[in-house]
Amino acid sequence: MIFAGVVAWDALEYPRPGSIHQDYHPSEYAKRAEERIAVICRDLVGVQQAACAAEIADRQREKHDSERDLNAQRYMAFWAFWMVVASTIAAFATLVGLILLQRTWRETKRTADVAQSAFLMSERPHLFIGEVQPMAPLFSDYPNRVINPDLEFFDVRYDVQNHGKTPAIIKALEASVRILPNLDGTPEFSSGEQSPFEMIVAAERARTASQFMRRAITEEDAHLISRSRQVYIEGAAVGHIFFYVRVTYTSPLGVTDQIMSAFRYDPITNDFIPASGSNFNYRRLGQIEPQS
Fold first, then answer.
1. How far apart are CA 180 and CA 237, in angstroms?
2. Structural domain contains residue 108
3. Which residues, 6 or more positions from 80, have their beta carbon under 8 angstroms from its beta carbon?
4. What is the DSSP letter of 124?
5. DSSP secondary structure code for residue 16 in this structure
């Protein structure tokens, strides 16, 4: 900046035509030297007149050389100033171009990553728990609360459906049938309800599995379930048959996902309906790293 300021100051003194710094032609300097010799050395004779003329000619030549050098330096300063200006503009334009190029590269990369993530998401398997049905009704005569005599254990059959485009390799399938007042707690599985094994669910197909309650349903359980379904008595115990299942699976992309769903048994319709509970209903998708 200091250098540019100095150059700019000198450029203001750039010799323009008609200024006091105008560079004269050598013939003009010779003419001016003759005029001065005629005036200053006219009263001298011989050697003195020659010496006087030589001295005036030397001074005039030195003046001519000094003015020529000064003007040349000012010309150089003028063009140096504009070279600095041009270089600054070029550097600024280059910087702006680099910034725009970097932004364009970032946007292009972001767009490509989003497109690739969307493609990988569409290609991954998406499991859902399909139809959930009891193998046999809880009551053979519901109005009279008669437990089905053929029901030794309450058994539930359910489907694991794949709505994705690629097969799902199931790494863990955990299901439980329990009598609980609600689904406010944390899902629990006993050793018999945890069945880690590899089961492939093909795309757009379903695989059927089953799970049963680990204890027989008593008359007291049946009465509690029936009463809880029909009426609400403040302070009375509440009980429902809940079925919940958790599936952990991987895809050919090597990403692990997990889903969990919960259902409540309706003894009147002999059907399972979705049950609320944030800890029992979720879908957790593993992160897919965009491929370079």
1. 10
2. yes
3. 7
4. S
5. P
Average pLDDT rounded to a whole number, residues 207-232: 86
- Whether 27 and 56 map to the same domain: the answer is yes
Q: Which residue has the tokens 């309650």?
A: 213
Q: Domain holding 249: CATH number?
A: 2.60.40
Sorting pLDDT into bands at 50, 70 and 90, what band is 214? confident
Neighbours of 213 (CB within 10 A): 19
The residue among 72, 99, 120 that closes a domain is: 120
Nearest 5°: phi and psi at 89?
-65, -40
d(CA 166, CA 251): 7
Closest to 4 in 3D by CA, of 88, 67, 106, 123:
88
Only one residue has tokens 């364009």, namely 104
**Does one domain contain both 139 and 266?**
yes
| Gap between the Cα atoms of 133 and 154, Å rounded | 11
Q: What is the tens place of the pLDDT at every residue in 45-104?
A: 666 666 676 666 666 676 666 777 777 788 888 888 889 899 899 899 889 888 888 888
Alpha helical stretches, state H, the chain? 2-12, 26-40, 46-123, 219-230
Task: Tell me the residue range of the domain where 110 lies.
Answer: 2-120
- Dist. CA 23–CA 71, nearest whole Å: 7
pTM value is 0.61
Write the secondary structure of 261-290 as one string of H (helix), E (strand) and C (coil): EEEEEECCCCEEEECCCCCCCEEECCCCCC
